[in-house]
Structure formats: C-alpha cells, structure tokens
Amino acid sequence: MSSEKTNRDPSGTISTLRSEETLDRGDGIVPAHGGRTPDHDVDEDPALASLGEMFRSLDDLEPPEEFTSHVMTRVREVQRSLPVRLWIALTRPRTIRVNLAQAFAGACIAMVLLLVAGPALQRVPFGGVPASKPAKEYLVQFTYRDPGAAAVYIAGTFNQWKPEEIPLADVSGNGVWTATVPLKPDVYEYMFYVDGHWKSDDRAAYYKDDGFGRKNAVLRLGNSHEALS
Amino acid sequence: MKPFLSLLLRLCLALLMLFPAGSYARASDPWASVKQTALSAYGPNAQEIHQELRSAENAGIPPEQVMNLLSRASGAALTADDVARLLHPIIRAKKENFPSESFVDKALEGIAKGAPAPLIESVLDRKLATYGSAAEILGKTADRKTLEATALSLERGVRPEIMKEIASLDSRSPGTMVHASQALADLTELGFPQELGVKLVTAGIQSGYLRSESGSFVEIAARAHKLGYSAAEITGAMESQLKRGRPLSDLLTEIRGKAGFGGPRSGFGASDSSLRGRGGQGRGGQGR
Amino acid sequence: MNPTRDALIVEDVLAGDKEAFGSLVHRYKKPLYNLAYRMTSNREDALDLSQEAFVRAYANLHRFDLKRSFFTWLYTICLNLTRNHLEKKRETLLDQTETLERQVRSAFPPADELVGKKQVTANLEKALQRLPLDLREAVILRYLQELSFEEITQVLGISLSAAKMRVYRGLEKAREAIAELGGKP
Lengths: 229, 288, 185
Known about the structure:
The structure holds 3 protein chains of 3 kinds.
Chain A: H1 46-56, H2 67-77, H3 82-91, H4 100-123, E1 138-145, E2 152-156, E3 166-167, E4 176-183, E5 187-194, E6 197-199, E7 206-209, E8 215-220
Antiparallel strand pairs in A: 1-4, 2-3, 2-5, 5-6, 5-8, 7-8
Chain B: H1 2-27, H2 31-42, H3 47-59, H4 63-75, H5 80-95, H6 100-112, H7 117-138, H8 144-155, H9 160-167, H10 176-189, H11 194-206, H12 215-226, H13 231-243, H14 248-258
Helix pairs in contact in B: 2-3, 2-4, 3-5, 4-5, 4-6, 5-6, 5-7, 6-7, 7-8, 7-9, 8-10, 9-11, 10-11, 11-13, 12-14
Chain C: H1 5-14, H2 21-40, H3 43-59, H4 70-92, H5 94-107, H6 111-114, H7 119-130, H8 133-144, H9 149-156, H10 160-180
C-alpha cells in the first residue's frame, strides 16, 4: 500500500492542537515529557511491527460510483440559515482588510436589513449563486452524406457502441442523412455505421485512432467537467 | 397424527424463517444473475470465466458492466475464453483504481467493430498503460474526469513529459487540467509543436483561461493556423495578448476580420496588432 | 498562512460555490468510505456514515478552522458518527444482525470463501472487529489509513504518547485475538 492510498493532499499542513480541541477520552494516559520517546514504540517489537504491516496490506474497497453525486444532491439541499450566511460573509477571508469596527458596523447594517427586509432576503440566493446548477443537455445533429446508402446509424461512447440503435434519416431523399441526439456535456467518440460498415465522420473537428484500424471522431460538448457531479 | 402435525408446523416455521434470509441474499447479490447469464450463454464452458467473474466481483467492478459485456460478447459469438481475455485487463484496471467503465466501453467498441478478441485485449492493455502514465503524471488524488482527459490526450499523441509540465502548474480550478489537456491534444492535432503548445497553454492558465472550457482558446489558434500563420507566430501573438491583459476574443475578432468573415475589426491599429501582415493568406474559408 | 489546496476550495465553497465541494468529496470519498468500512465491517453502514460525514462537514463548514488540515477534521466527524452508530447498534441490533448474517452466509457462501480466501486476511479482519473502539480507531488510522502519529493526534484529539499507546495496545490485543481465532499473526 503506497502512501497515496488515502488520497490525501500531500501538502496538508499540520497545525498545533489547541487546548480546547483536546478531548479527554478518559484513557488515563499522561503525555510523555516533551520530546521523550514513549515506551510504547511498535518498532521496538518486531512481531507487532510485522502485524502492523499485515494490517497495512489489507485491500481497500472502492466506493460506489454514485457516491459523489449522492452527497452533492444532499449538499445542494442544505440551506444555511441567514445568520450563518451573514457570519460566513463577515468572517471568510478576503483580499481587503476589514477591521473590527468595520465588521461591527457591517453587522449592524446587516441586522437592520435583516429586521426590515428579512423575508425578502431569504428568497434571494446569497451572493447571487443559484442553489444548484441546471443539468445541461445539448441537442447534437449528426450529418452523413451518401446518396447511395441504404441504412445509416450513429454509434459511439454515448450508446456503448451499439451499432444499430440510433438511425439517421434521409428525409429529403437527397442523400443527406441526419439524426439529432440529446447529449450531456462530456467528451465523446463516435463513428457512422453505414450498410454494415464503419465509416469515420470526415467533417469532424478532431479525431482519435481507435486501435482497430479506424479513426473515431472526437466530439466535445460544453464543460466536460460538469459531468463530475 | 400429533407428531406429524408438529413436524409440519416446524417445517412451515423453518421455511418462513429461511425465506427472508434467502431473499435478502439474492437481492443483495446481483452477481448471481451475472453468473446465470454466463451459464446460459456458454453452458458448461462458463467454467472458463468463473474465476474471472469472481475476480471482477472482488475488484469491485459494477455487475451491470460485466453483464453488458457478457451479453454483447455472446451476441457477437465470442467464446468464453475470449470473454476471459477481455476481462483480464478490465479487472487489472479496476484494481489500479481506474474507471472500469472506460475499459468496458472500449471492449464493447471492439466487439461492435468485429475486432478479434486478442486485438481487443491488446488495445485494452495499451489503454491500461496509458492510464498508468496519466495516474503517474497526476498523482493518485486525481478525479476521474481529469484522469480520463489526461489519458485521452496521451492517446491523441501528447507526450507524457508535456502533460507533466501542465500538471505541475498550481491551479485552483478542478476543471483546468481537463481543458488544458484537451487544448494540448487539439493543438497537437493542428500540427503545433508540443513545446509551443505547452507554452501557450501555460500562458492561458496563468491568465485565467481554460478553467471552464478549451474551445475558444483553441479556436483562435485553429483559425490563425488556417490563415497560414505559423505555430510560432500564433503562440507569440496569443502570449503577447495575454501578457498585456487583453482578452483573446479581440484577437479572434481581428483574425475574423483578416479572413473576411465579416466580423467587426478589432480596435487595434496596425502598429498595435498582435498578428501582422498576412490577411487573406492560407486556406481560409469556413471551419469544419 | 500558506493555504493548502483544500483550504482554497473551502474558501470557494464558503463564498457560495457549492459545486466546489464536489472536488473535496472526490478526493476523500475513498479513504473516508474505507475508514467507516473498517470500523463497522459493513458496506452499507460505511456508505451511509461516510456520506453523512461529508454532508455534516458541508453544513458545518463555517466552523472549520482554515489553518487546520481539512482531512483530519473530516476524519474526526466521520469517526464521531461511526462511534455513535456502533454504540447504538451494539445495544439494539447486534444479535439480530449476527443471526441474519450467519443464516445468509450458510445459505450463500461468499465468493471469497469459495475460492479459499486467505485465512490470515480473514483473521486480521475479525481481530480488528474484536478491538475496543478506541484501539480499533488508532490501528485503522495508523496502518489502514497510513496517517502519521501527528495526524492521529489531530483526528482523535489526544496526545502523541496516547496515540502511540493506543496503536501499541491495539496491535497487542489484535495479536491475542488472532491467537484465539487459531491463526498466526
């Protein structure tokens, strides 16, 4: 197990423990003298040290893929009370310096505002940030030109490469085949499936070698990082 | 009669007690359905993939992904041995904490395109190696989208040392690495030398670009490239624009004007222009 | 102050960017889920507890001291939740759960056992569950989460020597438990 196993920020700093954070857990253990090596050092007992190593070798579980989306769904529902929002607004670090007198004056103004316009303020998201981002979806029109084709489909990473799932239609009968597919912001690869043969989109912006002797078109929609949550 | 009734009653009670436990076990074990699918697809030969299915389960691959692979593989007349070959790299990928879905998708692509199992296996092995390089570049704390974007850029020909240079930049926005790697791959495809590409992308990141998208950043380079400007000229012009704190969109307007796209000319005079001379050269015309 | 990346993200979240919290969830979901799993030995409980820990962390983010490390704060929240959960569960559900799990196991042996899972691993996992909560926490943080002793002091709110003592006693007790189980440590 490597040190990265815990996914922690290696740059994490260790701050000094404040007295009020120290919890008395009732184990009756008195801290050793400053700097003195405690007697209970696992490294001094090879059998215990090797047991520790065996614990270290236990495998980690992978959290379910929907973990983050579930947490974020709940996080979006959390509404901070107005006093907390005011507290955050007044205490969070800023590039400008706010002295105590200014903060006090600000708090007084905020209190007056709260009393006068409290109900109205609560309806407006604090700082103008919407409570949650709307899930964007793009309607993408795929076009393939081939007057001689009998059946044209589109397949790619958006439909797990099922060849005959999304058909294109030649509505005007002039050999221009189109299909409109709703897709979320992400990066996709695709190809056309024409009369049982795979064809690259020769009008795509970008391509990627598919490893099987052909070229996939690369389609990028919006901010693909939106798909994270 | 009495002992018989007593026995019957006990049997009923035992059945009642077992029923919820049995349902619980079945409901919580979707792998039973996967194994059932393997059995119905391959009959006695399903034994050949039994070990792989157990490994897939232990590795934490979602059962629906394996189920999908199994049904598509059997539909395409792949043998049980073929399926085992495809599952090996997918299991290894999952054990390395890579998203198994990308690997399953690649296997499905290979199956759909009629590739033989050994070829799909080698494509998956290469993909695994690429993800390994991406993870090495990013460190294991990288989120899935960043890892996938980095791997995709490596697959599109960006050299690992170039990606490493971008990854080493301190960036607060989680999306920056995704868009920076996309921009680098796009610039590479446009024929930009990667040393210039990384210089340009670095300048962009430092000026706050590439946090939420890479399209407009690359579009400027692509349009200038189509007009016949060299990669060095484009990099120089864009860098100088960024250094002066001016928006790159001004440059795009200027390029559009030079290409005769009918867009408004930028307010820059000829002496202040970042891109000089060559209006109307090159291929011009509409973008793809 | 030289703010860490986590602290910068926390600042963004407090400034109103809820979605930025997602990157903290991404980064710490795996260690937190595993921490809860090793404490409870139950995947569903681990999932509930670790997700709840993130939600509580978000709800109380304004109380987080930006000079401290975010993950040790998060671990503390998760361990507090886990302790409460285990204490409650021990009082009410332990017997029933064990009975049900025994029934299910005998009817449907897990795949691991079918392939002959190494006895050593099984014994280590059982031994961990037999440890008192405070010692279990210490051993998990030290060896399964690979925290330094200084980090353990922050998560558990105890002194350095107490942290070392708990790890030491945890391993001693685990060794005894493994011997009772008939295995080799």
